[in-house]
Amino acid sequence: MEVMFHMSTGLAGRITIREVAADAGLSISTVSRALTGARVVAPDIVERVRKSANRLGYRADSVARSLRTQRTDTLGLVIPDITNPFFPALVQAIEHAARTQGQSVLIVDADNDPQVERAALYTLLDRRVDAVLISPAHATESLEALAETARVVPTIQVDRVIDEALPWVRVNQSQPIDEIVGRLRSGGREHFAFVGQSSTMATSFEREGAFATLMENAFPEQSLRVVRGTLTAASADVAVQQIMRDWPETDAIICANDIIAVRVLQELRSSMQRRNVAVSGFDDTLIAEAMGLTSVRQPVDALASAALAAASGVPGVSLHVELFSTVIFRTSTS
Amino acid sequence: MEVMFHMSTGLAGRITIREVAADAGLSISTVSRALTGARVVAPDIVERVRKSANRLGYRADSVARSLRTQRTDTLGLVIPDITNPFFPALVQAIEHAARTQGQSVLIVDADNDPQVERAALYTLLDRRVDAVLISPAHATESLEALAETARVVPTIQVDRVIDEALPWVRVNQSQPIDEIVGRLRSGGREHFAFVGQSSTMATSFEREGAFATLMENAFPEQSLRVVRGTLTAASADVAVQQIMRDWPETDAIICANDIIAVRVLQELRSSMQRRNVAVSGFDDTLIAEAMGLTSVRQPVDALASAALAAASGVPGVSLHVELFSTVIFRTSTS
DNA sequence: CTGAAAGCGCTTACAG
DNA sequence: CTGAAAGCGCTTACAG
After folding, report:
1. Which CATH entry fits the domain spanning B72-167+300-323: 3.40.50.300, 3.40.640.10, 3.40.190.290, 3.40.50.2300?
2. For B75-103, what is each residue's pLDDT tens digit?
3. A273-277, A296-300, A330-334, B93-97: segment of lowest average pLDDT
4. pLDDT tens by residue, A259-291
5. B105, B121, B127, B133: best to mutate for the A interface, most A CBs within 10 A
6. CATH classification number, A174-299+329-333, choose in 3.30.450.40, 3.40.50.10490, 3.40.50.2300, 3.30.70.20
7. How many Å lie between the alpha carbon of B20 and the closest alpha carbon of chain A?
């Protein structure tokens, strides 16, 4: 690889297959076949082509190839907000898995805005991506553009599912909550609260629902302790204050993500809670380890693999995949 | 936009310009010109073309356009590790700025591996990106591939600079450190330590250098208190223990990023420090607000704009831009 | 196994 | 202002 672009240095035009053919004294058809391995070419010819190509620093123009083959080897990835700490790991897993199979990734950050998302989907289709992987920005407002896209190209919902009928790859959200609550109950806790986010976000909504269902079954006599906030510190503070005022018996708080959880921990400390309150987060971000916060590690690599498999359009591949998380118990729940 | 792909539903082939031309009873040249606005077309003709295009759900194939125009309207973005909390905000800023000017972004996560990075750069060149924006993975091992790439396409170093001679857009790393130390000194602190990361990472290296220079000038009689670690909790713990053992007089710790800072805060608390030690981080991630951690907010939007401007290749645009940060003082330094 | 030709879907000189 | 033609750089039937 070291000298690949060596000869194409400086001057404007890049080396094309035509020049390689001339250099090797062969037709461009033969050069193409020798390089792509599409059909059998005599070994000595292949060698001759390789030599010329390397010496000239030839690399096939993938734009031209795409136009001809009608494949771009490119995936469109639409993320609602990459500064949400869950997504970087997902983006990394998807990009890595894609690269492994020769695909590149066009990324779009939808700014949590369904209108931006819609426009982005059109752009991706214009660019003829082979497939679209999307975590929809909104539970209802993203539906239409998602469906339109799915009509044109394999489209996989990743992590956030808003249309059950279309392909999706998701993570079960109740299993880790069951696991955390189970562990804490055997540790003697029995007054659980949940701090979530806006219900238009699919995963937070699912987590809240899972929590509510579990509570109704486990503690039918208790009132449901659920508060919704945003990712800001002030919002978490309000949530903690509300919980402690309305339900002072609370001895465990399940948070919909690590950021909320960290702030809840902080607020509990600074408000001089005499009682020990267990706290857990979601997403197992770097901060969870740093803070000793119990959190939920989602299987991003498996999620990425399943998403790419579903996107490949290969018949027989599962278009609906549900995966499970690992709860990482740390000091915040002990 | 709502009905754009409406008619292309279902069956394989997408609508091409040829079909729009037939539908409108015009030549494909005219259709192209009417739609791109490249040259003056009679208003009624434009209207006729628009109608046909909309009705048929036509959208130009950008692969074909790129082959013809030799522009892809695509930027290659190479990031060393998107799970490093600084990068999501940068990726978001770049993607947003790019979209605003009609460019898409092919993203690659180099896994902190110069070999992966090199291969990624070749792939981006194969894909004929208009420019490359890169935060190099390694201070020396990334040099060669960076230079090769720069020979073919406008290539801008973003945030991390390893080759001063090539274009870059960076953030001054000493200004915020000067600012933090200055503020803390007027608060009476005078024994500063620094916890950094591996010196092969350009920014951490610069921060460490800035700290060292400042200390030599301000406290020439003191020994230099610098420890390097990794992003893990265990590493930060060791760092804190080393500082407190070797330099027990330390009353302020500047950390090279927020993750390290949070862990340092934790370790200080749990080790029952009787003395109050100020702590600051870098990158002003969500966690800094949640923890009340003083941190350095880098101007990612301006960084992105400057990078895109430099990548545009427009003559007169600055190819070397240095920007400044804002220190967000919070309770961790009071 | 190799070559000449067609064509992917556009844009843009070149004529008129 | 509009159209017929060339061509971007490949891959792949079609012949041989």
Report:
1. 3.40.50.2300
2. 999 999 999 889 999 999 999 999 999 99
3. A273-277
4. 889 989 888 887 766 568 999 999 999 889 888
5. B127
6. 3.40.50.2300
7. 16
